[in-house]
Amino acid sequence: MERKQLPPKVLAAFKAVVELFTEGADLNTLTVSEITTRAGIGKGTVYDYFANKEEMLAGALYHGMDVVCWELYERLEKKKNLYEKMEQILLDMETNKQEMECAFKVLHLLMDNSQVSKQLRELFREKKDNELPLYQMLQKLIQEELGEGSGISQEDTLYLVMNTMSKLVCYAMYLNYDGVMSVYGTKKIRERICRAICQEVENVERVEGSADKNID
Description:
The protein is an all-alpha fold. The protein contains eleven helices and no strands. It has helices spanning 8-22, 32-39, 46-49, 53-76, 82-95, 97-109, 115-126, 134-146, 154-175, 178-184, 187-215. Helix 9 (154-175) runs antiparallel to helix 11. The longest helix has 29 residues, at 187-215. The protein is globular. The mean pLDDT is 85.
């Protein structure tokens, strides 16, 4: 699928924002000068492309998450089933902790009431379904597992995506607790999470199928 190419200066600004955000910068106090200095572009250039700082920050965070999810999704397409795909996501979280951490920090940011958060939520609402930040990617993976004509309701699909996302967030937190990891490791925890996600999808599909038969 062809994707829109962004101007080099916009990409430089986006890269700078993501780097600063990953390093722990507070987006509410981050200045345009700090961003453009890191990006190596002129301060006035920003306003050739964006109405304000918040629009640039939201665009950068969305783009950063979109890139991570697209690259991951392309690798997942080679996997046979949902278990293998979920396992690959967890393995990526282990080996690319900084990138995945940034993605989950964006999810957390969506829940507060700052101007950046409001701009980011608006940007998510405007995007098309075929663009793949984390939520859309998980939704697509689950729908692919269920197959066409599964009859799963939108509510059940939403539940499965949120259930999967919550497990990924918990695993991201687990990876940050080195003391716990040294005791339990990652392999068995990873296997349990993958099985739990797959079982939940199977359970919802089974219940939905039973309901359809009762109606008939």
